[in-house]
Amino acid sequence: MVRQVTWLCAILIVTQSGALLADNSLPNLEFNGFGTLGVVHSDEQNADFINDPFASQGAGYSHDWSAEVDSRLGLQATLHLTPKLSSVVQVVSEKRYDGSYAPEIEWANVQYDITPNLSFRVGRMVQSSFMASEHRKVNYATPWVRPPQEVYRLMPVANFDGVDMRYRYPVGETTNELQLNFGGGSVDYSTGSIDASDSWGVSHRTHWGDATLFASYGELKVSADELSQFFDVYRLFGLPGEQLASRYEVDGKRTSLLSLGLGYDPGSWFVMGEWARSSSPSLLGESEGAYMTLGYRVAEWTPYVGVARAKVTSNTSEPGLNAALYPSPFAEGAQLLNGMLNELLSSGIQQESITVGARWDFRPGMALTAQYDHIDMRSGTSGGLINQQPEFTPGGRINLFSLSLDFVF
Amino acid sequence: MLKRLTGSGISLLLGAMLSMTYHPASAEVLVVVSAEAPFTRLTSSDLRDVYLGRRTLIVNGAQVVPLDLTEGTAARSEFYTRYTGQTPAQIKAHWARQIFTGRGQPPQALANSRAVVERLVSDAKALGYIDPSFLDERLRVVTIE
Q1: What ipTM goes with this model?
Q2: What's A161's DSSP letter?
Q3: How many separate domains does chain A show?
Q4: Which of B70, B86, B92, B99 to mutate to test the interface with A (most CBs of A within 10 A)?
């Protein structure tokens, strides 16, 4: 419902704004773009390393060197209709879960500036859950080949259709930006979709000299068809099944996400770090992630190192139904369900990683980045790897080698 | 007229002195406004925030509009290195973060100092930086504190 109203408002504002034209340099249309041509190799050949959590293939098992994990192209049109009214549409083409490169709308909104410091937007936006969330696909604008997954994978739904408000205000030598948003979104993957509804978030960013401070908190309701069906089956097993379903079902429960970040960049070097925690009284459980990246700039070169860590702080196993209490074939069914439940509970990312890389800004608007990641997965976990083959052993270590050409225009 | 010439003479001298005091190595850019502009001083953090699009500066009810030089010019590199501590590549990445998150576009870029001077003279709200050899009596050097 929110989405329909949102789109209606956006269309109305655009179609009714013709009368407001005043400045003769307006309307003004600008085109910008960004992209990445990247390849990544994983030395784990029995599973796929991915960046987009909904991808169907990645590097390792499906491809020795994969160009699908990081490559993408984004195009943006920015229309200034009046000094106060503007619109941004951004489409991004990258490898989708269905194997195609069909472009998706990343941003499509209408912005109205009540004052130069206070603006409202309606349409499609990206949540500012983490420090680099909103530009996470613009690799040129971040130090790494891809944002540290230990933090950025905590919240897979990034787009939302709704409204947001941004307020910029200076205090002394600091400049600040407060952002509030409300809406909902959804993502499709190969066997279903995940919907986020009633999502709201607040984020705050302060620039103080060379320092940046960031904080964000948000809540959303997540639902997934596949999970609903899974718990419906549990409910067939009487009271114990009902209890398990109500404890672990995802539908109708609120997930919260808290994140804190800081950066310091005096020019010749920089450090940035984030910590985040997601929490849900459901199967999704509670997870924490953090990273820190340190870089040094020498002419066109920026070598950097990073460490990151992710862990699940809620239970990752569950005894489930007591199969002995049920006659065949319910006993076998109970065991099957318990197995699936435990697999889901233990699928959260739990790992530590070390990243070493170097970026070369070889010409304006273009950079080449080489990155090495060493990921140490906690015992029994699979670090978010997909397409796990029977030979795959969880809890191991993997090495990634990435090369990425990033550009903006 | 005489007063204005004296005024700009003083600000010229002041600008020269300041650039010698603070930046003895290379005085290659001057931050300037129209002689009619309502301000002649800026803090270095205001200057940086205005050029990075983080702050809207309003003087006497008018919004200060920063003007840029096109990428690749020596004066531009000099300006950003000195007043933001960032290289042109870092500035490019900064604007990529702004543009692709709908936070706005970089300041309008003009081809050379002459074009900046012409714009400043016709727009008292504009703020620019130029090669010192283009300074004339129609402009005032902005003191960066």
Answers
A1: 0.89
A2: E
A3: 1
A4: B99
